[in-house]
UniProtKB/TrEMBL annotation, chains A, B:
Domain HTH lacI-type: 13-67
PROSITE patterns documented for this protein: HTH_LACI_2
Record protein name field: LacI family transcriptional regulator
The species this protein was found in: Subtercola lobariae
CDD domains attached to this UniProt entry: HTH_LacI, PBP1_LacI_sugar_binding-like
InterPro entries tied to this protein: HTH_LacI (IPR000843), LacI/GalR-like_sensor (IPR046335), Lambda_DNA-bd_dom_sf (IPR010982), Peripla_BP_I (IPR028082)
Keywords recorded for this protein, A-Z: DNA-binding, Transcription, Transcription regulation
Length: 344, 344
DNA sequence: TTCACACACGCAATCGTTTGCCATAATTTG
DNA sequence: CAAATTATGGCAAACGATTGCGTGTGTGAA
């Protein structure tokens, strides 16, 4: 038999089917299945048997229609391609499944309009949303938070609960690591200017460098993609810095590849620090010194916060802000400052 | 205002609200919005205005209840962590969004039971499913395909339409590449034995080696994860082969890391070929020679096939089998066979 | 003037559940 | 043994949208 011959999608069994099979009313079946104590045990068993025979499975749409709850949560990411989100998605997925929720993945393609539109159009299709790296304005975010329960990740706004990965504090560590290696000309390789974490990292970079009497340089912006690393590497080389901190690992890895291509050795000629410690940061060449972020945990915490306010009737005394620490993981992409040309 | 104070999730506007605002019947609003030609233009504009004012957005649950169509498709992956699925998810996501469908991501955690259960429990929540690397038996797959329209990826069964990435043909190329480099002792590093593509790759490996009078060796099974690469590397080293073809890139990259740790150089002492060309295969150390698979395309094609049979009434003459070619991408992890010990 | 025929819109049933309310039967209590 | 209570299960109204059918209005032709 060819698959194409297979045209019958038989109507699935409904409560009514089970009811007539068991010889009871629909309401009794409903109760037997969702509130067993409410119906006599012998009736219940008859019903359960019938349900099993008919392979009954409740229609979640109908259920959602009454309860107003879909038991689904949307996770908005800027770009499914970015490995950063994979740890995040893994975290949310695990936690959601554990709570019996299903995850709906939405890719906003780094567009605020698409994010806004989807959030509006689909708001009835899920009980809440996790916004990872939202591109929305504070005002819009505040407005939408009235329509859909939500939690943001790496985006703090007073009107919305959030999980924040404290990369800025890590930046301080990273800068001090570079300074201790003798670097004095250090640049921040900027990500997209619409990115909220990017600005936070830049501010932390400024604070950290100034504390040590070093002038902060900013190069960019660049798209947070591996391909953009080529331009970033060229720009960094041209600027004459001896070390740089990149907005994220993707960009840093892209730089590493370009530098290798151009024959400049890392860290002998240029030290590079990334952010996030994504998949690949440990096996690239050279392995990347980076700010390790608890990304998966961030996903789990965000889900917990969201579900807490979905499931409880009272919202008082609930944690609405979480900050997760990062730490510097030193690998092989950072090293002592190179000797000045002509001097030992 | 603290987020915690924010307790009101106002009831969203319904057709009834719009109807009373516009002073018409519910049915008229419904038609004005979904079948504009059916209602007078001035009434329609009044309705549209009211809908806009009330920020009306249709309840997809209610819609699904009537139509029986949810406009959602589930994508089942064995492990969201595995970068192989990154590209796949990206492909399905793009194609689904383009068709106005939403993607529901399900992680089966490499468990056939979980896969089966979820498929059953959620079958009414989506219109169809894409099964990437299903662990189900042929019989079960056939049975379930009667309940839910589905398309498998990298899993061919006569009862279910499928998209197949032709890695086996690529294995032939890979083996010939190794043979042309002088290798005669070559092993296949096996993935999980429950994995369907793993068996196909092994069979292709056997065919390819035997064609060249080389004895096929099999090492494993190993979990298709980076961490398992350590054991695989040790085993390969111990077996005395000079080259190997790994079940997938993840395993190959793990091997690369372990070999570096043990101080054995690739490809001077051992050549390695991966499969899939996932994210990272190009920037690991050394860059991996691998079988480049059109993963994202596979996702897109699978979605197209699924939607084709969902949207059309007639299923006849529909493509129910697609094979996508792979090609060998030679990078730096393969090289000439090492000289025998003591001989030049 | 009357018949026919669009056209525009409303009525009400429907999808599959859940749940408040009520009727009956069974059990306990005084 | 009557009265009060409890256990059990059925009826019917929601939830929000779609859609077949019917009604009323207006237009043109005979």
């Amino acid at each position: 038999m060819s698959p194409a011959d297979d045209v019958s999608w038989p109507r699935a069994a409904t409560l009514a089917d089970v009811a007539s099979a068991a010889g009871v009313a629909i309401s009794t079946v409903s109760r037997a299945l969702s509130n067993p104590a409410r119906v006599n045990s012998v009736t219940r068993e008859r019903i359960e048997q019938a349900a099993r025979d008919l392979d009954y499975s409740p229609n979640s749409q109908a259920r959602a229609l009454i309860s107003g709850r879909t038991r689904a949560v949307a996770v908005f990411v800027a770009d499914v391609t970015n490995p950063f989100y994979f740890d995040l998605i893994r975290g949310t997925q695990r936690q959601l499944k554990a709570a019996g929720y299903t995850q709906v993945l939405v890719d906003t393609e780094e567009s605020d309009e698409l994010e806004d539109l989807t959030l509006q159009k689909l708001r009835r299709s899920f009980d809440g949303a996790i916004l990872a790296a939202s591109r929305l304005t504070d005002a819009r975010l505040a407005a939408l938070s009235h329509e859909v329960p939500m939690v943001t990740i790496n985006r703090q706004t007073k009107s919305v609960p959030s999980v924040f990965i404290d990369t800025p504090s890590g930046i301080l560590q990273a800068v001090e690591h570079l300074i201790s290696l003798g670097h004095r000309k250090i640049a921040y390789i900027s990500g997209p200017e619409t990115s909220w974490p990017n600005e936070g990292r830049w501010r932390a970079f400024v604070r950290a460098t100034e504390r040590h009497g070093v002038e902060p340089q900013r190069i960019g912006p660049f798209s947070p993609k591996k391909a953009a690393g080529a331009a970033a590497a060229d720009a960094a080389l041209n600027s004459g810095v001896t070390a740089c901190v990149a907005f994220n690992d993707l960009l840093a890895i892209g730089m590493l590849m370009r530098l290798r291509e151009r024959g400049v050795s890392v860290p002998e000629q240029l030290s590079i620090v990334g952010c996030d410690d994504i998949f690949g940061a440990d096996f690239c060449n050279p392995p990347l010194t980076t700010l390790t972020a608890p990304i998966e945990q961030a996903g789990r915490v965000a889900v917990s916060m969201l579900l807490a306010r979905l499931d409880s009737t009272t919202v008082s005394g609930m944690r609405d802000r979480a900050t997760l620490p990062t730490h510097l993981t030193v690998r092989a992409s950072t090293g002592p400052v190179p000797h000045e040309r002509g001097r030992p």
